[in-house]
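Weekly puzzle thread! Below is a chain. First person to post its structure in token form gets bragging rights.
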Amino acid sequence: MTTLLVILHVIVSLFLILVVLLQQGKGADLAGAFGGGGSQTFFGARGATTMLHKLTTASFVIFVLTSIALAVLQARPQDSVMRNTPASAAPSAPAPATPAPTTTTAVPVAPQQ
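Winning reply:
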């Protein structure tokens, strides 16, 4: 879940960067550079918001929602292997070392005559 959300977040952030960089400043619309008026607007010349403005707003909303979701997911306590272990359990004492086995060497006995 988190991995999918991170991938979506990165894609949306790259798209948001692209859309913001494509926008022109106020009074310097792309249509004004080519002599046209209102060719960049979404619903014709009468629309106040451009297609890029709508894309920027939508991607910003998705970016904020994925940011909040990632923050909430990271704030939750994660599963742990040690969760079921009692807190007061002390480690057990090590087993006593066993003495090294003694080796006996056979002493040859001379045969009796």
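Puzzle host: Confirmed. Bonus trivia for everyone else. Helices lie at 2-22, 30-33, 51-75.
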